[in-house]
Amino acid sequence: MSGVVHTSTAELFLVGQDASNMMGNPAGVCYPTSTAEVQEAVRWARSKGMAFIARGAGTGLAGGAIPTAGSLVICLTKMNNIRSVDVHRRAAWVEPGVLNADLSRHTSRHGLHFAPDPSSQQSCTIGGNVANNSGGPHCLSEGVTSAHILALEVVLPSGEVCILDAENSLFDLRGAFIGSEGMFGIATAIEVRLVQNPPHVSTMVVGFASVHEGAMAVSAIIASGIIPSALEMMDAPITRAVEEYVHAGFPLDAAAMLIVEIDGLEHSVSDGTRQVKDIVLRFGATSFKVAQSAAERALIWKGRKTAFGAIARIQPNYYLHDTVVPRKKLAEVLSQVSAIATEEQLQVMNVFHAGDGNLHPILMFDKRVEGVMDRVHRAGSEIVRVSLEAGGVLSGEHGIGLEKRDFMRWMFTENDLLFQQKLRAAFDPEGISNPHKVLPRGSGCADASSIPPGSWM
Amino acid sequence: MLRQPVNLGSVVDDLQYQMANSDVVNIVGTNSTGVASSSPDACALKAPSGIISYEPDELMVSIFAGTSMSEINFELQRVRQRIVIPEWGTIGGAIATCRNGLRESHHQTLPNNVLQCTVVAADGSLFQGGGQVVKNVSGFDLVKLLVGSWGLLGLIVEVTMRTEPIPQASQWVQSPEPVASEQISNLYRPAVVTRVDGVMYVLLEGHKLDVEQEISHLHGFALCESPNFIHSTSLTNLHRLSQDLPHSIEWDIRKQFDPTNKLNRHIAIQRNLFT
Ligand SMILES: Cc1cc2nc3c(=O)[nH]c(=O)nc-3n(C[C@H](O)[C@H](O)[C@H](O)COP(=O)(O)OP(=O)(O)OC[C@H]3O[C@@H](n4cnc5c(N)ncnc54)[C@H](O)[C@@H]3O)c2cc1C
Questions:
Q1: Which of B165, B104, B107 is nearest to B135 (CA)?
Q2: Is the CB of A131 under 6 A from ligand 1?
Q3: Inter-chain CB proximity A143 and B112 less than 8 Å
Q4: Does B184 contact A at CB distance below 8 Å?
Q5: Residue A429 φ/ψ, nearest 5 degrees
Q6: Range of the domain at A26
Q7: Is A301 helix (H, G, I), strand (E, B) or coil?
Q8: Is B93 inside any structural domain?
Q9: Per-residue model confidence (pLDDT) at position A170
Q10: For the segment A153-176, what is each residue's pLDDT rounded down to a tens digit?
Q11: Are B256 and B152 in contact (CB under 8 A)?
Q12: A320 and A294 in one domain?
């Protein structure tokens, strides 16, 4: 085993980071190609008294894939086979390193796709989606990753392999594992549910003269009983940045725009489109456009999903936040976010899953400016605070990782955290699978004792 | 920022008292599963009942877990919303047994619609999992663990559920003859497909014209009323035993959550979760 553990400085540098701004201290990295090799890696780490951490593509934003405590990084990108597709049952077994977009591309010939569609879908892995219970624009009607996973093959921190599914256990261990951020073991095979591609799709782009009106329209659409398949908002600065980059035909004069998509059978789509149009006009829409072709639709989504690429043209660095608020509080919290950014003299842009109340304020900065990181972090914790005060939660899709670990007490009581720790302890009594994440110190969490001296934490 | 504890009446005291003074403490809703009758001498605890808050515009309702499904859906129907769970028993019972009905489409299945649970633990303390929003990955998913936990991990006292608009049209169809599987697979996301005693039943929901169009594509089917074949989940359904799963995870969860092994003890015994 030790022969396949890589320890070159260059490799450790790469697997020491993810898409957050943090840096970890891996002891080594290996690239297993089978469940048996993952098992071997976990057993090897155990035998050396080391912790280990699963890694997918490293696109996580909360530091979930940052190795702490001198962990062995078990990188799953070489386990990227789609093992089988059962068209009749609409299910597929895939390895954890399969890229999200590759799976849907593979099953498109059967008119099927994997519904969770994070903006990072061209590069993130299904294993990472499972570990973070990832979402995406179309999770508004389809539900997040958890609703699309039928079964998991898992290498437990003990080194045992087991299947977590509805048949084999009384408790929903499958459901408990999803979203556990690599702290309950490593998923080595995943049975996903595939859904039928919709026969009809209507994609609307709507402009508003103010963010407030756009947000009110979002609440009104949801309250009317229509469940769009996606309901996204972009404010003017991000719309302009994207438009320059993608030329998607977005309204440049609008203070905010919505992308509203309705899919399904013919009449629900045509009636739904009419209803949405009525509602947005009532809330003062300044422009309303329906995509006329699949190509136009694809361009709109390209614009939405490459928003982050466009930002790089404005400021060298950005910090992407992720909180959820009740939908009726969207307008209020968005104006608070804007005030927070002004107070800290930071530029902020918003592109987010409005239909779920899932905010993604992006703080833009140049980290070479002295003291800027303090302002960024202060603004970040204020955004978390106002979101919680509005009745919201810490994270809608990026997870807690290291980033929000110390905010957990803002949302949960000590006892809530204790019971989360009890669940973790049942899977990982020694705290060796991705230690020190999610649960704050002192919440009954036993991980701390295993930190070797001099480690990063 | 932490939410105020709701007024739970005497349930916390009751649980603490019973845990201190009895060997077995059962948790019941309306006893539709027969939990209470399986150990008649044991005391039975119930969650309080009543709707705590309902926000139709947010598609969300908070309810005491002892509230009956019929009461809940009666309230929701006034504004043309629903929770898709078969109409008997209590919401707490439905969650504890994952009484899902026959829904095909994942977004209507129970585990995805429970947003938050408040639980009185075996030690009498209160804990909460989840949050009052529709999307949430803050911490480990205690809600998924509690759905289908059969009262082995604590007494669920309060829940927040996602509601959904009642579709414009809902129509059951049935076919007593064998049905070519393409007929079914050509339907776009039917709400229910099930076979009972050789009869195939399908439920189609959505826009009235879409439902009519889907039905017109089916051959050999006749319209029918909502069939009455969905029976209560009974304890006898529980006998499946774990095969692949290292027993230790489920055991350990049970031990972590109820070290006394008193909550719904006979279910734990049946499930080999008794240490
Ligand atoms: C530009 C950009 C846009 C994004 N957009 C979205 C979005 O729309 N929605 C969204 O939800 N997220 C989004 N993300 C976040 C991220 O892409 C997702 O969280 C993704 O699911 C992570 O997958 P990964 O393969 O990169 O996982 P990694 O970052 O490698 O790992 C993430 C976590 O999963 C664990 N893990 C990985 N593989 C396994 C496994 N096989 N078994 C157990 N644990 C494992 C790791 O230990 C870590 O804790 C975005 C990120 C970026 C950079």
A1: B107
A2: yes
A3: yes
A4: no
A5: -60, -30
A6: 9-75
A7: helix
A8: yes
A9: 84
A10: 999 999 999 999 987 788 999 999
A11: no
A12: no
Residues B14 and B144 in one domain: yes
Q: What is the ipTM of this complex?
A: 0.94
Dist. CA B111 → ligand 1 center (Å): 23
B185/A172 CB distance under 8 A: no
The C-alpha angle with vertex A73 and arms to A69 and A74, in degrees rounded to 5, equals 140
For chain A, how many structural domains are there in total?
A: 4
Determine the residue among A163, A169, A197, A360 to mutate to test chain B binding: the one whose Cβ has the most chain B Cβ atoms within 10 Å: A169
- Same domain for A134 and A92? yes
Residues A175 and A239 in one domain: no
**Do B150 and B263 fall within a single domain?**
yes
Q: Assess whether A373 and A288 both reside in one domain.
A: no
User: Is B234 inside a domain boundary?
Assistant: no
CATH number, residue B117: 3.30.465.10
- Residue B148: domain span: 8-165+245-270
Distance, C-alpha A344 to centroid of its chain: 26
A324-333, B79-88, B160-169: segment of lowest average pLDDT: B79-88
Instruction: Please check whether residue B237 touches A, CB under 8 A.
Output: no
Q: What would the pLDDT profile of A377-390 be if each residue is shown by its tens digit?
A: 999 999 999 999 99
Alpha helix (H) residue ranges in A283-431: 294-305, 307-311, 330-343, 372-389, 408-411, 414-427
3-class DSSP state for residue B67?
A: coil
Beta carbons of B141 and A357 less than 8 Å apart: no
Question: Does B238 touch chain A if contact means CB atoms closer than 8 Å?
Answer: yes
Predicted local distance difference test score (pLDDT) of residue A444: 61
Indicate the residue among A172, A196, A220 that finishes a domain.
A196
Domain limit, last residue, from A27, A44, A75: A75
CB contact under 8 Å between A267 and B1, yes or no, is no
CB-based contact, A129 to chain B, within 8 Å: no
Mean pLDDT of chain A: 93
Distance A128 CA to ligand 1 centre (A): 4
Closest CA to B45 of B12, B90, B87: B12
Query: Quick check: is B175 in a domain?
Result: yes
Chain A contact for B271, CB < 8 A?
Answer: yes
Q: Which of A253, A248, A264, A254 is nearest to A233 (CA)?
A: A254
The pLDDT tens digits of the residues spanning B152-178 come to 999 999 999 999 999 999 999 999 888
If asked whether residues B43 and B77 sit together in one domain, one would say yes
Tell me if A18 CB under 6 Å of ligand 1.
yes
Element (H, E) at B126: strand B126-130
Contacts of A169 in chain B (CB under 8 A): 242, 245, 249-250
Given a contact cutoff of 8 angstroms between Cβ atoms, the answer to whether A189 and A95 are in contact is yes
Contact flag B140-A143 (C-beta cutoff 8 Å): no
Flag whether residue A157 sits within 8 Å of chain B, measured between CB atoms: no
Q: pLDDT tier at B86 (50, 70, 90 boundaries)? A: confident
Which residues 15-54 in chain B show a CB within 8 A of chain A? none
Task: Tell me: do B119 and B225 sit in the same domain.
Answer: no
Query: Which one of A163, A193, A324 has the shortest CB-CB distance to B136?
Result: A324
The CATH number of the domain holding residue A155 is: 3.30.465.10
Find tokens 């005291």 and name the residue. Answer: B13
| Domain count along chain B | 2
Six token digits for residue A131: 């570990």
Residues B112 and B43 reside in one and the same domain: yes
In a domain, B235, yes or no: no
